[in-house]
Design goal:
single chain; about 60 residues; SH3 type barrels; five-stranded antiparallel beta sheet
Length: about 60
């Protein structure tokens, strides 16, 4: 189990409709708020779904 925190950039298994698969973590808790690095759209997804979809951690800003 990986430890996620605000500011990390992660790569998800599926791409966003804009074409990017890189997201920055904005909020951590039972739900994760992540922001697309290309178009700036933010989405709120449950922790379990987020953890299943993460492919790798790209950058660690904290």
């Amino acid at each position: 189990m990986a430890l996620y925190h605000i500011g990390q950039v992660v790569q998800l298994k599926k791409a966003h409709p804009c074409g990017s698969d890189k997201w920055q973590i904005i909020r951590v808790g039972m739900d994760f708020r992540i922001k697309c690095m290309t178009c700036g759209r933010s989405v709120l997804i449950p922790r379990t779904r987020f953890e299943r979809r993460v492919k790798q951690i790209i950058a660690d800003d904290a």
